[in-house]
Amino acid sequence: MDGLIWSGAAVTLAGLAGLVWCILKVAAARRAGLPDAELRARLQRVVALNLGALFLSAIGLMMVVAGILLG
Fold it and tell me: What residue segments make up the domains of the chain, in order of their start?
């Protein structure tokens, strides 16, 4: 079960890195001073990646919990 815990931790960290990347992309887009329509287009693309990263981190946390409960 140690493998499940450590792999879950790695998946969680990958999801967390994705969330940080999304935050940095949004901050850069806001600082760029883009027109409203272009800013919305960029943010819509980041939202999909943000949800994917959130899903990945949640799956990783579930793997960690399952490993702890089964171990």
Answer: 2-70
